[in-house]
Input
Amino acid sequence: MARILYFGKLSSIFGEMSETADLPASISDTAALRTWIDQTRGFDGVLLHPSVRIAVNNEIVPDPSPVSDTDEIAFMPPVGGG
Amino acid sequence: MARILYFGKLSSIFGEMSETADLPASISDTAALRTWIDQTRGFDGVLLHPSVRIAVNNEIVPDPSPVSDTDEIAFMPPVGGG
Amino acid sequence: MIRVIDQPFRISDAIAEFEAQAAGAGAIVTFSGLVRPRAKGEEVSTLHLQAYSPMTENGIRDAVNRAKEQWPLTAVQVTHRIGNMSPGEAIVFVAAASVHRRAAFEAADFLMDYLKTEAVFWKKEVTPSGVHWIEPRTEDYHDRERWNEAKGS
Amino acid sequence: MIRVIDQPFRISDAIAEFEAQAAGAGAIVTFSGLVRPRAKGEEVSTLHLQAYSPMTENGIRDAVNRAKEQWPLTAVQVTHRIGNMSPGEAIVFVAAASVHRRAAFEAADFLMDYLKTEAVFWKKEVTPSGVHWIEPRTEDYHDRERWNEAKGS
Output
């Protein structure tokens, strides 16, 4: 089971900040995961925007990077505090 | 009687922060006053340096500006706080 | 010292603590960011900030280390709130101490530019018209670019 | 608010008071100048500052008014010590509040440049080698010049 985190506006769209998910065998990298989550969770293309970065196990990675069923995967829209 | 104020290093050289003085009739402007005070109070040329500004009655004035025996006259070396 | 906390803090306590750490410095610059009571003409009832630990803390630590490499600082402090906060409450406190003031000003300014545009936080405002996620302003990105230009020149 | 005082003050009290005045601001920048324990390799036992009232206060008030014309500030505070002070004590506290941070940073920076090079104060350090009157450093005059350049461009 992978743990998927949704931050910022993505948490509002999904309705939760996280979920656990069984990744289908066909999903082995971040680019494929992005498309699969976008389609199956009703994000309607929002996750496909290049401003949404993906972190695997607390590290931001470029598409496509490997993902597995034991990873913590975070979808991160543009950041900013202060 | 004019009141003469010495600030910063000038107060250390004169040994006091102020004095009252009867200005001689010949001293009617700041340029003449500067020279007279420098010579009679042992400033040894320090007061003649252009970085020493003169204020008459709390207002900085250029040489030569009028001075009279009822003024408060301040000799001000370069300023700076903070 | 870096803190990401979900409880209110007082700026006066933060600066009193920092002053003790900064002993020997001649100059302390602080920046405090407060929740504004209005945004785009609407009243703000709540500001909410999310972080992603430990990525958030690690990123701030890296920025503090870059500031220490670039300027001769004797002490640096970053405190950042997360969770729900009300208008007037402190969101962020940055303090930089140095022997002379220019380094302290520039380091605090640099750290704020990092926190506004690169630090791993997400924030939303709750107003009468609903919930609004806030992304950095164009000016914030421009402000950050100043440090890259300075490096290149 | 402008204060020239001959008694010690606490930076944390100054900022707590300022925060109350600055209600509604999103950004507060403070600068605190402290008596350094050493100068040119010597221990400083006492720093002494002279002012010339009301010229000193009037000059600071003019500088605060120039800052308010140049930046959209919601509050400004300048507190400056005179008389004898010991290492670690606060000499000066400047605070500027604004809706966004750039104005607050620039106004605090501008006011410090004024205080360092133009404000009507004279200061001396007492060290083991004697009494030394301190004039602004070349860097202080250069820092001040930045604001004239900015105006001209």
Notes: Strands of chain B lie at 2-6, 18-21, 53-56, 59-61, 72-76. The radius of gyration of chain B is 12 Å.
